[in-house]
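Record format v2
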Amino acid sequence: MKAVALIHRISGVALALFLPVHFWALGKGLQLDVFLRWTEQPLVKFAEWGIVVLLAAHLGGGLRVLAIEFLDWHEWQKSLAAIAAMIVVGAGLAFALAL
Amino acid sequence: MNYRSETALWIAQRVSAAILALCVTVHLITIVYAVRGGLTAAEIFARTRGSVGWLAFYSIFVIAVAVHAPIGLRPVLGEWLGWRGQSREIFVLAFGVILAWMGMRAVLGVFT
């Protein structure tokens, strides 16, 4: 399996595991602030940054798959991988700077 | 699973992926905007409570995720864990239903 495809798969599995926790936290209503205070810890913040980067990685990898399958851009695969990497770095930087 | 069902899953995965590409882009921009200066429940609710636009957006987002994630997990379970057959299909279906239920609960939680 190519590295880009492997990253797409691993990020997808990680997001699938994260989603139930994310929904559970958002479903807490007014108790949400207690949870948000817990997320202020440096390690949790780092994990949040990680999940945002994984989301961007899955988006970039997914756009690459859609482009390869539907746009007949097979010869552009390396460029598409680079575009996917740019999306990841861009989103990661933007989130890190906003924290 | 027969050929027709596999094709239906493939189409559902690509259609949900196209919807999610848009939703995730909007979500990433919203995250970066929202976390500036810290995140509070009041800030989130101020944005989402009573907003039909956000309700519609996140409802579509959740439904697309509930379709996309289980279909994506299917081959991973098969190839990496050797889990195939009916028990896997029941598991991924249940996972999708749980995601849809928890997701819509979260969406309605921040809307009302």
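The helical segments of chain B are 3-34, 41-48, 52-81, 86-111.
The radius of gyration of chain B is 17 Å.
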